[in-house]
Write a structure and sequence with these properties.
By secondary structure, the protein is α+β, with helices and mostly antiparallel strands. It is built from 3 helices and 12 strands; from the N terminus they run αβββαβββββαββββ. The strands form 2 sheets. Strands 1, 2, 3, 4, 5 and 6 form a 6-stranded antiparallel sheet that branches. It has a 6-stranded antiparallel sheet with strand order 7-8-12-11-10-9, with helices on one face. A hairpin with a 2-residue loop joins strand 7 and strand 8. The longest helix has 14 residues. The protein is elongated and about 65 Å long. The two termini are 35 Å apart. The relative contact order is 0.16.
């Protein structure tokens, strides 16, 4: 029952998160593993596939937590400040986001009476959700006609949506801030590796045309930190 509650919480934690990329996938590395815990391999949380696993470690939660944070940062993942880390259980939790692959990683650390720690591991791939998705940037719910193109080092996403311009702007500010991007100019967002610009204009039938352009940082631009 305890295991099921932790896994359910872990699955729901990913709902609403969006983040993005093209690189070798992150792999978990928990120190002091002494056994594997049998859990459901993958669950679907509101249409988002969440891959689950768990291990038992001889190390204390604080040691494992620091190891995971260090590994996230070395991998170039965005690690929100602890004050912004969701804590849905009494057990310590840590979340990191791959801002180039739309994948979130969360670990929940459960101390055991015998001195070991059970580490529940989950990763959510938002490019595989049932709603419109793109590996380039978050997509406003209800988007239609997604088109991708690439030219001169930039990737472009275009779609239309029946929404107000202010709502689309608020969506991108919230989603990209959570994914580790900083708004450096109006609707221009920057992470440790990329610059993402959002533009919109009226389309036919009262819809809104949204254009998202993403490119890598140029040599003269100052990189934003990958973690806090």
């Amino acid at each position: 029952m305890r295991c099921a509650r932790v896994l359910a919480c872990l699955a729901l934690l990913f709902v609403g998160r969006e983040a993005a990329a093209q690189r070798a996938p992150f792999t978990w590395d928990v120190p002091g593993v002494v056994g594997v815990v049998d859990v459901t391999g993958e669950v679907i949380a509101q249409g988002i596939p969440v891959k689950m696993s768990a291990v038992r470690s001889k190390e204390r939660p604080e040691t494992i937590l620091q190891h995971l944070v260090d590994r996230f940062l070395v991998w170039g993942l965005y690690v929100p400040a602890m004050a912004k880390q969701p804590q849905l259980l009494r057990e310590p939790m840590i979340t990191a986001i791959d801002t180039r692959a739309f994948v979130s990683y969360t670990a929940i650390l459960q101390p055991n009476p015998d001195g070991t720690t059970t580490v529940f591991l989950g990763q959510a791939d938002f490019t595989r959700g049932s709603s419109p998705a793109s590996s380039l940037a978050p997509v406003y719910p209800g988007a239609k006609g997604l088109l991708h193109s690439q030219m001169e080092g930039a990737r472009t996403l275009v779609y239309s949506v029946s929404a107000k311009a202010a709502d689309v702007e608020a969506f991108y500010r919230g989603a990209l801030a959570e994914a580790g991007f900083e708004e450096v100019e109006p609707l221009v967002f920057q992470s440790s590796q990329d610059v993402l610009q959002v533009r919109h204009s009226p389309a036919k039938d009262g819809a809104l045309s949204v254009v998202v352009v993403r490119r890598a940082l140029s040599a003269g631009e100052v990189a934003r930190p990958a973690g806090d």
